[in-house]
Design goal:
- By secondary structure, the chain is of the alpha/beta class.
- The chain is built from three helices and six strands; from the N terminus they run αβαββαβββ.
- It has a domain of about 90 residues: 60s Ribosomal Protein L30, Chain: A.
- It is globular.
- The protein starts with a helix and ends in an 11-residue tail after the last strand.
- The relative contact order is 0.22.
């Protein structure tokens, strides 16, 4: 009984869990750390099967061309492929630019208006370098 109350968020006077919120925000972190944050995002999505997930990716003032879009695609691929959250429930957005590369993870119940992007750097002030060429790994 206590287990069910804990997960429903209604234990002894505790208000219901607000699902329409920004779950997490992080910068350019190591892949292992990012996976841990994406695991938490996937768990929230699994606990609320009707919710939609939003991944907003902002490029940095200085960075590689297409970096934010690649980061969004990698995050969505991990959550849908490895954590088995339906890809159709996860929306991604290349949200513009901030001082540093930033990723926001949102979980929203059905019927809630999706969040809007909040870039802080004008695209004219951004210095982009060419994307690294994709290197394929040698076959063993």
């Amino acid at each position: 009984m206590l287990f069910a109350l804990f997960y429903s968020g209604v234990a002894a006077g505790t208000p219901a869990r607000p699902y329409d919120r920004k779950l997490d925000e992080y910068g350019n972190i190591r892949w292992g750390d990012e996976k841990a944050r994406l695991d938490n995002f996937a768990i929230e999505m699994q606990l609320e099967p009707s919710a939609k997930g939003y991944i907003f990716c902002y490029g940095g003032r200085r960075g590689r061309a297409g970096e934010a879009l690649r980061r969004c695609n990698r995050a969505k691929g991990y959550v849908s492929g490895y954590r088995h959250v339906e890809a159709g429930r996860i929306m991604t957005l290349n949200a513009g630019f901030r001082e540093e590369l930033t990723v926001e993870l949102w979980v929203l119940p059905p019927g809630v208006t999706p969040p809007t992007a909040s870039p802080t750097v004008d695209p004219a002030e951004v210095k982009l370098t060419k994307a690294k060429p994709h290197r394929s790994r040698p076959k063993r």
